[in-house]
Specification:
Blueprint lengths: L5 H12 L4 H6 L6 H10 L1 H6 L11 H12 L7 H14 L5 H5 L43 H8 L4 H16 L1
Length: about 180
């Protein structure tokens, strides 16, 4: 830990006014790192007010100038709202509503605490506020939380490219 004395603080303030960098100031003191100087300037309001100069030549350095020019030149394009609507419509087409009765016809419709060991944990009802959740309760697949019907529903059919890959793999297997 570096201890700073009042005389050191005055010297550092003068060096900051002279435009020295943190590395140059640290070199003037034995055993003091650049980061120690930066930390001191950041913690002390009187030194932070003076601050480090941006560049030894004065003015802004090249990196800051390039960043400023990029910000000024590049106007941000507005995103079209119609594209977002099209994505939402596409999502609705891809995921049609399927009546729960088709998947849950064989469900035991039991409460959570009544699900038998190794039973399916798929929720089968829409619960109004304060209502009771009901679960399938049928025999689950080994080491899975759901029965075969609900497990297949939980993983879905995959994307179009995944389905195409499965079809291609099956055709290759048949040809071999």
């Amino acid at each position: 830990m570096t201890f700073w004395y009042e005389g050191h603080l005055d010297q550092i303030a003068q060096m900051l006014r002279d435009g020295l960098s943190a590395r140059q100031i640290a070199a003037k003191f034995d055993g003091v790192s650049r980061n120690a100087v930066i930390g001191l300037v950041g913690r002390r309001a009187d030194l932070a007010e003076i601050g480090f100069s941006r560049s030894p030549r004065g003015g802004e350095d090249r990196a800051h100038k390039v960043a400023r020019l990029r910000r000024e030149k590049a106007p941000r394009p507005e995103k079209p709202k119609k594209a977002a609507v099209a994505v939402e419509e596409a999502a609705e087409v891809v995921r049609p509503d399927i009546a729960a009765s088709l998947y849950d016809a064989n469900s035991l419709r039991v409460e959570l605490h009544n699900i038998p060991t190794g039973g399916c944990h798929w929720p089968v009802n829409d619960v109004p506020k304060g209502g009771v959740f009901l679960f399938c309760g049928c025999e689950a697949m080994p080491e899975k939380p759901y029965c075969e019907v609900h497990y297949s529903r939980s993983i879905g059919k995959g994307t179009e490219s995944e389905r195409a890959a499965v079809t291609a793999a099956k055709s290759i297997a048949r040809a071999a």
